Amino acid sequence: MVSLMSVCFQIGCLELAKWVNDYVSKSSIDIRRAHVIAALIDMNAKCGNMDRATKFFEEMPKRDLISYCSMMQGLLVHGCGPQALSLFSSMLIDGLTPDVVAFTIILTTCSHAGLVDGGGCYYFENMKTNYSIVPSYHYACVVDLLGRAGRLKEAYELLKSMPVEPHADAWGALLWACKLHCDIELGKVVAKQLFELEPQNPGNYVLSNIYAADEQWLDVNLLRNKMKDIGIR
């Protein structure tokens, strides 16, 4: 049954999730068992039934990090950023220590909600300073956060300050921000990095759209010819 719940949230099938809920409520399955109730929370949260997920969550005799993360992820996916942040605070009050997954969720939440200085940047520094977590994908979250807010230079400086070579996700987040805010010059710099990391990824050639928006048609044609040369249409 737990495997079926996993399938439900992977495909996001609300109707199947409802059937599982009904079946579990009528069966002899002990939903007090930690792994069962955690699966029910995860399934309902990711399938959009937040009321049901909340009910299971509140009925847990002892909430753990996994159940908190499942609830926060569900709230994030369904646009309930403030509630996700509040739940993160409750998790800390409960004495739980957030891990890399919890911070990824909360940083993504801040990005979607546009919470920069008192939000994502605060949590990012807190994660490093107070929890000794070495950032990985978290850099991409903060770059996306700064980029959405139009603070492109800060995002670029953050990438340059990374102790390891930034990965494509981080550069990609900044390139999309350059497109959003029509920053062509920085876009060129970022795109160059992406071309070297993922030359066959057509999404990296979004720079041609930036050129087109600024009516730099020569650059548009040059870039699109480059795409044809390596087999990207």
Explain what this protein looks like in three dimensions:
With 233 residues, the protein is mostly helical. The chain contains 14 helices and no strands. Helix 3 (34-46) runs antiparallel to helix 4 (50-59) and helix 13 (207-213) packs antiparallel against helix 14. The longest helix is centred in the middle third of the chain and has 16 residues, at 116-131. The protein is elongated and about 55 Å long.
What keywords describe this structure?
233 residues, mainly alpha, disordered N terminus
SSE layout and pairing:
Blueprint (H helix, E strand, L loop, with lengths): L1 H10 L2 H13 L7 H13 L3 H10 L5 H13 L3 H13 L6 H14 L2 H16 L6 H11 L3 H9 L7 H13 L3 H14 L9 H7 L3 H13 L4
